[in-house]
Amino acid sequence: MNDHELSRRAGVGRVAAPVRLVHLGLGNFFRAHQAWYTEHAPDAPEWGIAAFTGRSRRLPELLDPQDGLYTLVTRAADGDRFEVIGSLSRACPGVDHDSWLRLLGSPEVVAVTVTVTEAGYFRGPDGGLDRDRPEVRDDVAALRRDLTASVQTAPARLLAGIAARRRADAGPLTLVPCDNLAGNGQIAARVVRDVAELVDPGLIDWMSDHVSTVTTEVDRITPRADPHDLRVVAEATGRDDRAPVATEPFSEWVLSGSFPGGRPRWEEAGATFTADITPYEHRKLWLLNGAHSLLAYAGSIRGHTTVAEAIGDDTCRRWVRQWWSDASPHLDQPAADIQAYCDALVERFANPRMHHRLEQIAADGSQKLAERILPVLRAQRSAGRMPRGAVLVLAAWVCHLRGQGAPVHDARADEVVPRASGPLRDAVPRVLASLDRALGDDDALVAAVLADVDRFQRQGVR
Ligand SMILES: NC(=O)c1ccc[n+]([C@@H]2O[C@H](COP(=O)([O-])OP(=O)(O)OC[C@H]3O[C@@H](n4cnc5c(N)ncnc54)[C@H](O)[C@@H]3O)[C@@H](O)[C@H]2O)c1
Ligand SMILES: O=P(O)(O)OC[C@@H](O)[C@@H](O)[C@H](O)[C@H](O)CO
Predict the structure, then answer these.
(1) Dist. CA 111–CA 144, nearest whole Å
(2) Do the domain assignments include residue 239?
(3) What pLDDT is stored for residue 460 in this prediction?
(4) Nearest CA residue ID for atom 2, ligand 1
């Protein structure tokens, strides 16, 4: 033990709380958001979290010697604030499937929060489980043989945990997805139910009686961790933290649904509980995430690497405002509130001390655009209008898939990259059809996207 150690044994932070919550997707966002709300709930000493990664051992290896403690750096435009978060009682690698099953089979554990990315739900074109994906097929085959077999995909892991809970007769469980998907509660429930149907249909009835699903809207911009922050934290706090996480001051968590087994008093830490979450979801996914995707593709084509750089570019800012004027008529809030929300977004995006890389946001466009852009595009096209901002995002995505701007990292890269290659007049409808067949058949939309692709190719780069 040394004076600089960050661990509960060294007397830092509080005593680890008993594990009553499990998280799947131990990463930066969970640590800046759900773990932070739990830390700030007045009953925090009663609510410890055991969090599991996808597969990697890296974060548990860094956090274990710190007894789960880490420093949250709240990065405002005028400086940093440092706080040790103690709500993470255990950090586990995803491969520790025995612990996963044991915890979900424990009556002490009453809820599972999830952040596994949009792609992590393995949805197919009809919104249900994509039964043809090899990873899904492997997991289904493994669970058919043995419900305790080690599995990889999030839907299968959740189902395996629910089966363990049924075996142990451990009582009600609440599933709380926190990924950027509208209706994430229904989406998660559906893919888990689809696994059950393939593996053990009896579990569907058990789930109806024992598993409730909560839908959430989540917001806190949390970039990928920056190694430079280890030194920043050491200098400011005098403690050696091997896994700090930096986030913005703004935070929002809106939840809709019930927790029969109980939950922390998150509302006293600032969370909102509502019966109607849709307006919150649309406002956030379209205005914030839609603008993020626009900047990720169009901004990186213009040579920018971070959100702050891109929003500082008059052209990008004008494009973002254009997108917001496409989306705003389809939101339920009063115009003045939407205006204020957008103005606040410009300020959040412009935070010069947040290095939120466009490359990170650009990943998995095939999953993200469906949530962030398409609902507005469809509503505008149904009304006979051509939404200029939405067209621009799609055109920039086509260019991105053809090698302009941020590099392509996409769960469906094998399908969408080939679609984007070759003569543009063929490529554009093919790419649009990969998002929604009807879009590829919309000749006016295809022509508008082609015109913007042409502009990006000729003028878009600095
Ligand atoms: N970072 C943000 O600003 C932010 C804000 C709001 C919502 N979110 C949501 O949280 C998600 C995660 O963001 P993050 O910044 O924590 O990312 P991250 O890379 O730091 O962590 C992601 C975690 O999910 C796991 N994971 C990834 N793919 C998986 C899969 N297919 N199955 C199971 N586990 C998987 C990873 O192993 C890791 O544990 C985002 O995709 C988004 O939906 C993020
Ligand atoms: O985290 P991703 O990769 O799903 O998307 C990147 C960003 O658009 C997103 O994470 C935002 O930062 C976040 O949604 C803000 O609350």
Answers:
(1) 25
(2) yes
(3) 53
(4) 222
Nearest ligand by distance to the CA of 113: 1
Q: What whole-number percentage of the chain has pLDDT above 70?
A: 99
Q: Which CATH number is 91's domain given?
A: 3.40.50.720
Total domain count for the chain? Answer: 2
CA distances from 256 to 56, 185, 195, 225, 304 (A): 31, 9, 24, 30, 37
CA of 221 to the centre of ligand 2 (A): 6
Which residue range is the domain that position 58 belongs to? 19-275
Q: What does the pLDDT read at residue 331?
A: 97
Based on the fold, state whether residues 127 and 237 are members of the same structural domain. Answer: yes
Contact 161, 112 (CB under 8 A): yes
Query: Using a 6 Å cutoff on CB, does residue 184 contact ligand 1?
Result: no
Express each pLDDT in 277-296 by its tens digit.
Answer: 999 999 999 999 999 999 99
User: Do the beta carbons of residue 137 and residue 168 sit within 8 Å?
Assistant: no
Q: How far does residue 74's CA lie from ligand 2's centre (Å)?
A: 17
**Residue 295 vs residues 183, 338, 347, 417, 435: alpha-carbon distances, Å:** 25, 20, 15, 20, 19
Domain boundary among 228, 250, 275: 275
Nearest residue to 284 via CA among 318, 307, 310, 250: 250
What DSSP letter does each residue of 114-175 carry, written as one string? E---GGGG-B-TTSSB-TTSHHHHHHHHHHHH-TTS---SHHHHHHHHHHHHHHHT---EEE
Structure token digits, residue 424 = 């543009």
Rounded Cα distance, 450 and 454, in Å: 6
pTM for the predicted model, two decimal places: 0.96
Q: Does the C-beta of 367 come closer than 6 Å to ligand 1?
A: no
Distances (CA, A) of 65 to 144, 233, 239: 37, 17, 13
Question: Are the C-beta atoms of 175 and 164 separated by less than 8 Å?
Answer: no
